[in-house]
Every structure is written in structure tokens, then in C-alpha cells.
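tool_call: predict_structure(chain=1)
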Amino acid sequence: MAEVSTLIDRHFLECVICSEPFNDPRALPCLHPFCCECLEHWAKSCSNDNSIVSCPLCKKVYQIPEEEGIKGFPVHFLVTNLQDNVDRAKQKKSTTGLCNKHGQEKKYYCVNCGCAACSDCCVLDPSHRSHLFIQLKEASKQRTSSLDKLTRRVKDVEEKFTTAIQQIQEVEQDLERATDEKIQAIDEAKNAFMQQVDKLVEAYKQGAYSKKEENRRAIDQIKEKLQVDLASLINSTELANNVIESGSDSDIISLYPSLSSSLQQLAESQPTPVNGDLGEFKLDPPQPTSMDLHSLEQLLCDKLHITIVPTEHTLSHQTSNLSTNPSAVAKPLPSATAQLLRSPAVEKPVSSATTKLLSSPAAEKPLPSATAQLLPSPVAANSLPSSATEPLSDITPKAQVIAAAVSRQLKSTGKTESSQGQSLVSSPQSSTQPCMGKKWKYWANIKMTPQASRPMGIAIHPDGDIVLTSMSSPVTVLSRNGDFKHIFKGSPSEIFDLAITPSNQYIIPGKPGKNEFYIYDSQNVLFSTTPTYDINKQPSNPTSVAVDSAGRIIVGFGYNGHKTVSIHQPDGSLISKFETTSPPRRLTCTPDDKLIISFHINDTLQLMDQSGHNASIIEPPPGIQSWKPCYVCCSKQGELFVGNTGYPKAVYRYVCTGGEYKYLDCITKMENIPWGIALSADEQELFLVDWKSSLVKIFQ
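tool_result:
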């Protein structure tokens, strides 16, 4: 059997980089030891600027201390202590076989003292008088047998632990498999739901086309008769005029009876009445044989074999289908309706078009079938306001829902009656209608956790997570409710901006002095570090990042007088770059992949293409006292939000008209400087960063 000192030396005291005994061992945060000099050479291969190092064993990436470098990592005292103990054991081994008192070889073992002894110790040493001695080899054999038994017992326990680990791994695999099956079931339910939606929409479209043709034929018949009657009137009038102007007295006398009788009849005739209903869009519900539309919630419950337990806070989903069953109005409203009832939107006045549709005496026509099912006639006749100035809070909750829904429908379609065969009730969060022209209203505050105090830049992940940069901490991820989730390992602090790509990668600029930007994958793991240079190929620190619709990364450099914008592939490789007239503060991309850039020195906001050409000035809002545009954000519909750090401190909204951005309104004025601006994935919520108060304000 090998000596213990030999085993320790071989397995624990050699550096895995140089395969030699440790020299000045240093411990990375993962506690793996390496020679200080070996680690310095290894770090040079990990990054060009020697700022990060990855562990050769576990591959984790760590920041190298800026002041001391690799020597800033602590000494691995466990390794140094093992080295000292092994050295002492080796020195002792050379003298272990001889007795220190008598200089003779130790061949006996004192049972009473538990130590080895020579023959003189057994006979002459008073401390061993009357003690029991046995051969040293026999004692060693007994101890070896005892150790062997203990080793086998430990081996049995080790097998139990191994079995337990295998069992938990199997449980983990079962969890993964069950999750995949549920996700697949959810996707299948979604597909089935969308197929039903497509079929129902197609049924309504066919009904619309059929109704159009039916009304068109009736219109053509009326039009043809009117044209014939008009031609008869014109011919009779021309004949009478000819007789009056050029007829002789005898002609007038002879033709008068017939002409006067004919003209008398024509003078008393009336045109065929025009049925105004033929020009209106009234959509009949699908035939009873058509498939009813079940809600996605019901399909998911059926697919996942779960049952909804209704409570006073959880409303039934059943009324979301558009069947022609009149009893649907007696069922609880769907959850989307409940959200709408709690929404500030129901406190708005009814639009004039909605009021005219629902309560005007001139509009005493039946509502579309889908609306009529949700709105009983007493509500339609008596509960709705007759003026656009009456707030919805004065009418019944159900009428509030229907009126608000019809109002949104009218705004989006421009029609006097809703013709969709889908539910008129929808949640602001789930709506896919663009927000152009809608009024943004304050919704809520999120107070930052200690891990994300003093926030500056912000981005919203598609799953609703809030991603923040700050002055004092790395990039931090919060839940939609503001609860701390995690930070980005290795990410810098003191940065002002970040962006999320269409593939859910994170683009994060380096901190001041770090001329690079980082790309983290969707699992928050560092994927790439990209060095950056200005137009003159000088190292430059990025101040702002954005991502266009194709996933290209746009980087602005505004520190230390740099005036450059660079365009990169999604993997970070450089495509092109151009010089700007002033250091860029922040930038964003429009829906057609143009750039909107706020500039630092001349305090302007400009629209340009990705080559820096065709630049145009976006004018400040009228009457503003100090225009210092900073943070900018653009929606997928081209709606632009600008944070002004001048006076008044506010967030302004622009819309794109004819290729130019025109000021629309002020969303909110703020006591503190508005820093980051971001939109949720569905663009129904706007997030503003209040740095001084450590708040994120939410608008809907």
C-alpha cells in the first residue's frame, strides 16, 4: 500500500496547469488552487485586457482585481498547510524505524502505551515495566485489519449516498420530462385554440361577404328603378318644353290632354324609398351548426387535466365563447373582463360615437349579436349615458365593460357598429392593438430592492422581468412585482444603458474605462466580450446600446469626446461605423431600423439611417424652457418617448407622420431626472426610472 504522504503529494499538491508542485498557490472564488505564475499566463489567454479569468477546471469566469492583478486572489492556505504536513511526515519517516533513546530498531509494540519500542525499551525502560509487548508486525496487522473493516463500512455508506443521488437525479429527470409534456400540451391547446379562432373568423367573414352581396342586389334593383323613373321624367319634360316653344296653337290644343295628364301623374309621383339599413354593416351570428369558440383557459384545463375552482376573485371563463346561447349573460364574466372592470380605463367618459351607437334615438337599431348577448335590453335602453360627458362610473358595471369595449372597437375600426365575431371585452395587458393616439395614464410604482438601488438603465424581458443597471451594483433582474431575482455575474456597475435582442440575449456596455461591451445569453451567462474602437481606431467606451429588428447591435460612444456609432452583427462582430457631429448620449431604433440619437453637447435629437446620413432634427416640444433630451425609446408602431433632463423634467411623446416625428403630448412631469425608459413586450406598459427616489414608475 502506498504511503499517505505519497498519495497527498500526487493528488492534492500538484498544479493542474504545470503538473508541478504548487508554487505560491492562489485560490479562485470557486476554491480551485493554481500556481500564481501559471494563473497569470492563463489569464492572458482569457481576455485581451487581462480583466477576466476563467477557472481551468470548472470554467467559471471571474473579474481579476484591478490593483493587484492575480496576486489579489487569496493564498490557498489549505494547500500550503498540506505541503507543510507532508514535508514533516517525510522528515519523520526517515527516523521512524529507530528508537530515539537507544538507537535500536523498533520491533515491538507496547499494548499498554500504544507505541512502538525496541528490545532495550522492553527490558530496561522503567516506563514500560510490567507492560505487555507483542511483535510490531503483529500489531500492524491487527490495526490494518481494523482499518479494512472500517473502510468496508464506509464503502457501504458511500454506496447508499450514491444510490440516493441517483434517485434524486431520476426525480429531476422525471420533473424535466413532465414539464416538457405539459409545455407540449399547452402548445397543442394554443394551436387548437388558434384553429378555432381562424374557423370562427372565417365564418364571420363569409357571413359579411354574403350580407354584402344580398344588400348589393337590393341596392341595384332600387337604383335601376330610380334611373328608369328619372328617364321618364326627363323625356316627358323635354316633350312638353318642345310643344311650348315650337308647337302651333293646334298642336298645343291637341296634345294638351295627354301631356297634362302625364305631367300631373309624374308631378305626384315619389321616388322609391331608399332603405338606409342596406348601407349599414349588420353581421348575423354564425349558424347553430358552426363551431362555438371555447376560451384558451378551458382548452388548457382540459389538456392539462386540471379543474378551475371558482372563487370570489377568480371569475369563470365560460362566457368568453361566442355561442348564441342567451343564457351566457347570466354567467360570471371572464378574467379579462374583471381586469377591465378594475382598470382606470372604465373611469373615462364614453366617446361620442359609442354614445350615439348605444343610446341615441336615431340609432334604435339592434346591436350586433355578440354585443346583444352580453348587454340585455334594459341596460341598453336605460343604463347607458346619453351624453359623452357622463362618466362610466355612473352606470352598471356590465354596461361599463361593454361601452368601454365598443369605444375601443370604434376607435380601431372607424365603424359605427362592431362587426367582429370575437369578444368585445379584452384586457389592456393582452391587447395587441397599437397604442398610437391613446393617452398614457400613471398606473403604479415599484420600489427598488437594496440590490437594485439607484437604478439608471432599464429593459423589460418578454416574460415581464425588469432588468436594471445602477450606480452601485451589477445588472440586476427583478420580477414584475419588484422582487429581487438575481444579478448578472461578472457584469459591471456604473453603466447607464442596456438592451435585449429578439433572441433574448442581453447587450451591456462596459463600465467607464472598459472599452468593450458584453453579450450575455438568455440564461444570463457571459457569451462574448467585444472590444470597441472609435472612428479613428482608438479604444472607446460605449455609453449606449440598442438592437434593431434584425438583431443587429447599435453602439454609441460618447465618453471623453468620442463621437462614433458602430453597427455589429448579433455575435458582436463589426459591420460598420460612422462619426457623429456631437458625442451621442442615448440611441434607439425605429420600426424601419433607422436611428434616433440624442446628442450631448448641442442638445439635439436627430433621426438618421444606419450609415449616419439623411439626418433630420426632431424639434423640441413647443414652449419648453430647457431642451436636453437624453433617454429615448421607440415602440414597434413608431411611437417615440423622450426623457428631458432640462426644464421641465418630463417624458414627452412623439408620433411618426409622413416619415417625420411630431410632438404629441407630455406623458408626465417629474421632480427628478427621468433616466431609463422602456416598454413592455406587448407595449401596453411604459416604465420610467426615477433614479433619485429609487423608483420605477409604470404607465398604461
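agent: Residues 589 and 595 are 5 Å apart (CA to CA). Proceeding to next step.
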